[in-house]
Design brief:
The structure holds 2 protein chains of 2 kinds. Chain A has 1 helix and 10 strands. By secondary structure, chain A is an alpha+beta fold. Chain A has 2 domains: 1-30; 32-153, Rieske [2Fe-2S] iron-sulphur domain (Rieske Iron-sulfur Protein, 3-layer Sandwich). Chain A has a 4-stranded antiparallel beta sheet, with no helix packed on it. A 3-stranded antiparallel beta sheet of chain A has the order 1-10-9, with no helix packed on it. The mean pLDDT of chain A is 92. Chain B is globular and about 55 Å long. In chain B, helix 4 packs across helix 5 and helix 6 packs across helix 7 (142-156). Chain B has one domain: Cytochrome Bc1 Complex, Chain C. Chain B is built from 9 helices and no strands. Classes of the chains: A alpha+beta, B mainly alpha. The A-B interface holds A 19-20, 22-24, 26-27, 29, 64-66 and B 53, 56-57, 59, 64, 67-68, 70-71, 75-79, 81-82.
Amino acid sequence: MKATVYFVGGLVSAAIGLPSIVYLLDPALRSEAGEAWVPIGKLTDMPEIGKPYPFSFTRVRINGWERTASTHGGFVIRRSEDPNDLLLLNSRCTHLACTVNWKEEEGIFACPCHDAGFDKEGRVTHGPPPRPLDRYENFRITEDGVLEILYKEG
Amino acid sequence: MWKRFFDWLDERLGFNGMYKALLDRPEPRGNWWNTLGSASLVLFLLQGITGIFLTMYYTPSPDHAYDSITYIMNDVAFGWLVRGVHHWGATLMVLVVFIHMLRVFVSASFKYPRELTWIIGVGLLLATLGMGFTGYLLPWNQRSYWATVVGTQIAGTAPLVGEFILRALRGGTDLSALTLQRFFAIHIWVLPAVMTALIGAHLYLIIRHGESHWPKQND
């Protein structure tokens, strides 16, 4: 009798409990994979070699019942006359995801949140970041001379 | 091992004594009508739990209330189940609480020394209806909107204070974002708090007086 009660009780608890947990965690269990080529500007507008040109773009995603726009950004640095010799840094700080800014006079990308700095190659000069700035590795230049990067979601 | 653990706890908490006082009470001869109070309590707890779960996604704003419920119903895993239980549990609770009231009336259980249990029970019945009234608006669809227009208008027909009651219920002269917000607050904060307090008093009195017998010929 007692064993039966425990068995049925356990069964009912599982039948109610497991869906409840899935219900609560549902948004976390979704994977949003996807990628897209995002145009970020004409290469002719970035003529100077060695100068970081900032860019930003907005991606819109549907979260729940709302469209959420998130802004991403980075810097294009031409390393030479070769139009394909580009360094594309992500302006998201590798410490805790604040946005870094280019400081011309100091020659570093500075993060205002925890006083971090990165040099022109994205290497950490000072502060707490655990690794260099991320790079957009995949980029292409269209026939019209527009620079596009491959943005990967998730 | 477990026995020692429970003995250790029991020595400090005394839940064996509580168990005897709360659950192991002498009862009059079993009768299914006497279980409706417990059924009401179970439904109250069920509504509380499913309600807390619903607030994980529901938004009480005219812009998003309907969309968030559509999201719960169509996109969230088991959302249809949680909302379905809350929806049908609400209807069932009004029914069960009302039949419980009828049983207490028919069996004359409201008489001495249980007058206060009865009065508190009336408060609980009214609070349950208030839960139904405020909860009905929250999906913010045509039916709930117009039901609340009519419901608050009826409250507004009371002599002298009617106009004031209508404005207090709606948070202004019109049915608006303010109405939705205050109905939500009343639905999830005010009435649950009131009902928890009243249920506590109700249960205390039931334990204090024990359950009533069905009246006999000489009663």
